[in-house]
What we know:
The chain is built from eleven helices and 14 strands. It has 316 residues and is α/β, with parallel strands linked by helices. The strands form three sheets. A six-stranded mixed beta sheet has the order 6-7-8-3-9-10, with helices on both faces. A four-stranded antiparallel beta sheet has the order 2-1-4-5, covered by helices on one side. Strands 12-13-11-14 form a four-stranded antiparallel beta sheet, covered by helices on one side. Helix 3 crosses helix 4. The chain is elongated. The two termini are 37 Å apart. The structure holds adenosine-5'-diphosphate (ADP) and magnesium ion (MG).
Amino acid sequence: MYSIEVNSLSKSYGNFIAVDGIDLKVESGKIFGFLGPNGAGKTTTIKLLTTLIPPSSGKMNILGIDGVKSPLEVRKRIGVVLQQPSYEPTLSVEKSLEKYGMMWNVDAKTRKVRVEELLVAFDLADIRKKKNDDLSIGQRRRVQVSREFMHDMDLLFLDEPTVGLDPSARRGLLDYIKSRVRDGLTVFFTTHILEEAEYLCDKIAIINRGKIIAVDTPEVLKSKFGRKKTIKIHLDKRQDISSLFGAIPGCIIEHDSDTVVTIHSDQSEKVLQNVLQILASNGISVEDLSVVPTSLEEIFLSVVKNSNESNNSSGK
Ligand SMILES: Nc1ncnc2c1ncn2[C@@H]1O[C@H](COP(=O)(O)OP(=O)(O)O)[C@@H](O)[C@H]1O
Ligand SMILES: [Mg+2]
């Protein structure tokens, strides 16, 4: 069963294509991660799927409802936390939650129970009487995310919900989302932080320049790209040696600073042999040399970079 099914969905602003013919299938009861750099089209996609803006073309089925024809039907059954801050400055934390529940016609008794539960779950109990205006950005974000859980829904959209949260609040939120998904909620979650998507999501789509360039489970994405290793060379004095390595096949060379050279490759043993040979035959002394698995962050960046390059070379 799918909670979201989307075919060739596009959104243009004039000549600019913000979302470019994406296909998506999101399984019910799972957490789907939507990952991409700034400007990739994540927020636009969320606005399309939540029917806040109409698509330029394409089809979308949300919870079995035609989202293009019946946007209001969709909205009754979903929750959405947008990227943009939204709060009433003079309202206290607890009143913000209470009022949100009223807006959704949640009965008084249920509201009371949920407010108490959410104040604890989002670590807001100590500041329950504080006005939104007097909160830090991270606290306000926690209020904005927590109030969405005041009402019943089948599908929740979260647009970069962890931005501005400290590590413990971030972890708390991710774990709370996990617990709600165990109870049957489906979550569509955007982030530009790969570790977060890996921790939380059953499936991850990577979007860049309005196009989806990879969709898979975190495990598969890792095994597909995770064979890559990174060789880091710290020189003991500044010198430009990248040209020496240019001839080694199958690697990408970066100059991080005057004395640090990074080499990415998925044939690290071979490349390492070559590197050591070149260093020795040129009499280059090295302070430190290490070989480490490429981090998820770097994998993500390289996938995005490759897709940019293939776009450019296709004359776009
Ligand atoms: N209303 C709009 N008018 C024109 N361009 C827009 C509008 N909304 C978004 N864009 C553009 O669409 C692209 C994708 O934006 P967005 O979906 O917000 O990216 P993300 O959320 O991944 O950072 C950006 O280049 C942005 O400038
Ligand atoms: Mg965004």
